[in-house]
Structure formats: C-alpha cells, structure tokens
Design goal:
Blueprint lengths: L6 H20 L3 H12 L10 H20 L5 H21 L16 H4 L1 H18 L9
Helix pairs in contact: 1-3, 2-3, 4-6
C-alpha cells in the first residue's frame, strides 16, 4: 500500500509525539523509572518482577522504534498502524485499569486521567491506518493513482 496524503499528517503528528516520548524516557533516572514501572504494573501485573530501569529502557526503545516507523515513509501505513494500535491499546488498557484515572462508574477521565485518556486517539489513528490498508486489498476497491 502506498502512502496516501491523509496518512502524512497523522503519521507525522503521532510519530513525532511518540519518538519524543521515547527519547525523553531514555534519560529517565532511577526515580522516574520506578514511577513508570509502578504505574504500568497496575495494568500489567506480569511486569512487576521486571527491574524498573530495564522496564524504562524497554519502553523507551519501543517508543523510539514506533515513532521512527511512523515517521519513515517506506514503512507501510498498515504495518505502522498495526504497531500503533497495539502500543496504544496497551496504553488504553492502562487508562481502564489504573486507579484514579476515571470518574467513579464512568468512562470520563479525572484530571489525572486526561493525559492517559488521550491515548484513545492514538488507538483510533492506528486502527484507521489498518482499516484503510485492509479495505485497499478488497476486490473491486477503486484504487487512486
């Protein structure tokens, strides 16, 4: 699938945001790594035994790789979208499971939940890129040149 005009702004915006996040986490000290790790274990208890600094390094590396893939035009949009949907799906799970991010009995975020709730937009962008790639493969779909 070739890069379409509408892919450019969403890939640039999400790619730059995620790449910056990964580069920032690359410089995480022990205290920041511990906070990231503690927060992530509320949604993913299976990472509790992972060293916090190792977790921060892995998270940083994953964000850098994802951001770079989104910013690189020769990476197919469907593949970049699939990676974005997987990553942001994990972040969305964090929003649903971490205490204090949602108002009681509601999907609405608390003040603390707003920065995490925005990850639903990343999930929507990833799914849109994947859906576009899948629909382009359907027989009879008109292809724009």
């Amino acid at each position: 699938m070739r890069l379409k005009a509408w892919h450019v702004p969403v890939r640039l915006a999400t790619g730059a945001f995620i790449l910056n996040s990964g580069l920032t986490k690359q410089r995480a000290d022990a205290e920041q790594a511990a906070r990231l790790h503690d927060f992530a274990t509320s949604a993913f208890p299976q990472i509790a035994d992972l060293d916090p600094e190792t977790f921060a390094t892995l998270l940083s590396t994953g964000e850098i790789a994802l951001g770079t893939a989104l910013l690189t035009p020769f990476v197919p949009s469907g593949l970049a979208g699939l990676a974005l949907a997987g990553f942001s799906g994990g972040l969305t799970r964090l929003y649903w499971t971490a205490p204090g991010l949602r108002q009681s009995g509601s999907v609405r975020p608390t003040q603390q939940g707003i920065p995490i709730a925005k990850d639903t937009w990343l999930l929507a962008i990833g799914l849109a890129l994947v859906l576009d790639a899948v629909l382009d493969r359907l027989p009879g779909r008109r292809r724009h040149r």
